[in-house]
Amino acid sequence: MRLGDRALGLLTLLGGVALFLASMQFSPLPGQKYGAETLPEVVAVMAIVLGLVMLVQGLRHESGMALVEITDWARDGGTWAKLAAATVLIAVYCVVLDRVGFTISSLVLVAIMLWLTRTRPILILPIAVVTVLVVQFAFGRMLLVPLPRGELLSLPW
Amino acid sequence: MSTLSQSFALVFDWQILMVMLLSGAFGLFVGAIPGLTATMATALLVPITFFMEPIAAIAAIVTASAMAIFSGDIPGALLRIPGTPASAAYVDDSYQMTRSGRGPEALGALLVFSVIGGIFGTIVLIVASPLLAEVALKFSSFEYFWLVLLGLSAAIFVSPGSVTRGLVALVIGLVAACVGMDNPTAEPRFTFGNVDLLGGISFIPAMIGLFALAEVFRYMVHGHKLPPPLKPETKGMIRSQWAVLKRYPKQTMRGNITGTLIGALPGAGADIAAWISYAMSKRFSREPEKFGKGHVEGLVEAGASNNSAVSGAWIPALVFGIPGDSITAIVIGVLYIKGMNPGPTIFIEQATMINALFIVFLLANLLMIPLGWIAIRASTTILAVPQRILMPIILLFCIVGAFAITNSVFGVILMLCFGVLGFIMEENDIPIAPAILGLVLGPMLEQHFITSMIKSNGNLLEFFGRPIAAGLGIMTIVIWCLPLILRLFRGRKQAMA
């Protein structure tokens, strides 16, 4: 899926306006004309001008064309579902990591990802287990990264 | 003990040599897998370098990136699919040569001229950096301001594709650079009350997201099923290159020089260097009709060019702290973490480390011959690793790497956000390099601007008050006006015709 110049220009323009409004709350250095607001305001003005240029360019060269070009993969609902599943999976992983711990959450993550990439079912569990154990040993034990143990491992059993 | 012998002692330690061997093997593997880039190899390596001594960390990055740029040529020659974007320019020639039974000549040329390019770039780095540093010692905030702006402008106009989309990328990078308290008045900017964002956007998780996670997403969408590779032949591979070198000395030298210069330009790296050198080779060749049909000349020039660009990119990174490409953008972060703050004084204050870095560069390029030979021999096995298994494993490495930087889930969240952003950007032909430069150079630009304004009491004309600053300023403005000038020039030419 590819945004044309008009759509991307409009988004850049709106983003620039929002950035400019948000930057107005920052103050300059005492006794100076410039300060924390300078860079975001300059970037906002740059975005507004850029958005306008892209809009004009798009209106000139993209007449009769769709605002958004639907590429091959974007026509397939299954691909969208796979992409969404991978994104949601990592987001859920972030939420549960501290509670469930690195080992279990990573095991589930890698196993589902292997399933999404259509790895043979018989291979999914062995690959997931070996990967997680190797990563845990390398980072957790050797490099001493404090990977979360999770609340589950703190329970009486 | 002299500085140089101390540097040799630092590098020729069994631990450093072992790190170089392992990271070299890692770089060769990542580079040889189509879709995985040298920048991705570097981004994935950074979390591990966190736990290393400074010189080991730099040795790991230098070796992995140089090897990855070379090994990207291997699938090009065997599958007609470039391993990294830097190998895309001459993939038709190398594949046609392998198909027609000239595999050893093609693979040998790719290996030997990569080494020659890498060593040439390193020699320029060794000679030019200290000289440039002496000039840079005279720089004040005015000169640095223009230099950063010049770098950002060059990144837009050199990057392939549309200039407007390059500017969109720069805006994205600069907006990300605004986040946090690291600004003139230490006000929290765009943190939305989040404590983790007060320190700004952590650069490494962002890079892992943009380069590695975005690639995992791209695989989910596009998938890559590789065709069976051609069988690599290595008999007489290296020996035959002497004749090639004697036949194309001018092309080799031109590739070396072009690559180093393009590498030194901010935002332009090995991939652009290879494309430009290949085009130049064809343009000045006596047999341009043979290009794309299995001719070794383009391989020689572009192969030398992309590896010399890897070394060339370190020149502005070390002297000014301005990255020459996406790999050195990551490297600058690592240098700061390791206490080797880039800038002209690094050559005086950390002479031993800098000399050690130069030795590492030379050693890594020499190591490329044996390791590259092994990688070519093992290429059938490397290319047989199914990507459907590799991608979930890479995802876990991305997660652990991002976690290790912040020691919290925040790094992983940041990586996810930038991974999605990187995927969207690539799908919309928005280049990544200007965004990275914006993120790295944004704070520098702001700091030098504000410092200059305090010094000059808000007088903007002071930016042209010193000769070097004025020169840099005029250069920057000329680059901005270049599209307009070119358009006017073309219009006049058409009118005359």
TrEMBL record, chain A:
Domain of life per record: Bacteria
Record keywords, A-Z: Membrane, Transmembrane, Transmembrane helix
Coiled coil: none
Domain (DUF1468) ranges: 9-148
Record Pfam families: TctB (PF07331)
Transmembrane segments: 7-26, 38-56, 83-116, 122-144
InterPro entries for this protein: DUF1468
Name listed for the protein in its UniProt record: Tripartite tricarboxylate transporter TctB family protein
Originating species: Paracoccus laeviglucosivorans
From TrEMBL, chain B:
Keywords of the record: Membrane, Transmembrane, Transmembrane helix
Transmembrane spans: 12-32, 44-70, 106-132, 144-177, 197-217, 257-278, 313-337, 357-378, 390-423, 430-450, 470-489
Presence of the UniProt keyword Transmembrane helix in the record: yes
InterPro entries recorded: DUF112_TM (IPR002823)
Domain DUF112: from-to ranges: 17-437
One Pfam family named in its UniProt record: TctA
UniProt key word Lipid biosynthesis: no
Name of the featured protein: TctA family transporter
Organism name: Paracoccus laeviglucosivorans
